[in-house]
Amino acid sequence: HSHPDYSKELNRLNRIAGHVEGVKKMVQERRYCPDILIQLRAIRSAITAVEANILDGHLDSCVTDAFHSPDENEKKKKMEELKELYRKYNS
Questions:
Q1: CA angle at residue 23 from 20 to 26, to 5 degrees?
Q2: pTM of the predicted structure, to 2 decimals
Q3: What is the pLDDT of residues 4-30, one digit of tens each?
Q4: Angstrom distance (rounded) from CA 58 to CA 55
Q5: Rounded CA gap, 24 and 4, in Å?
Q6: b/e per residue, 65-89, with b = 16+ CB within 10 A?
Q7: Cα–Cα dist 59/78, whole Å
Q8: Contact in structure between 65 and 1 (CB atoms under 8 Å)
């Protein structure tokens, strides 16, 4: 089983890294708090979008493959993995 190709997310991750550097500079320059908070919210939104894309790919590829597998242990393992991801996302 091969993992999905998420290389298309690299541009978005590079933009996020650039935004983080920008926020660091804003903090160093003692910029206005709401301006910093707005940038942090934009970073969070961008990270959430990357997370959603990777989760979609995981569900479409890895999870689908596991549930089409005749191996019942693979199905159970993938279901436990999904439960754990859900718990982590909601904590």
A1: 155
A2: 0.82
A3: 999 999 999 999 999 999 999 999 999
A4: 5
A5: 32
A6: ebeeeeeeeeeeebeeeeeeeeeee
A7: 10
A8: yes
Q: What confidence tens digit (pLDDT) does each residue in 45-80 have? A: 999 999 999 999 999 998 998 889 899 999 999 999
Determine contact, residues 66/78, Cβ cutoff 8 Å. yes
| Alpha helical stretches, state H, the chain | 9-28, 33-58, 64-68, 72-89
Contacts by 49-56, CB closer than 8 A, 24 or more apart = 49/12, 50/9, 50/12, 50/13, 50/16, 53/6, 53/9, 54/6, 54/9, 55/85
Strands of 1-91 (E only): list them: none
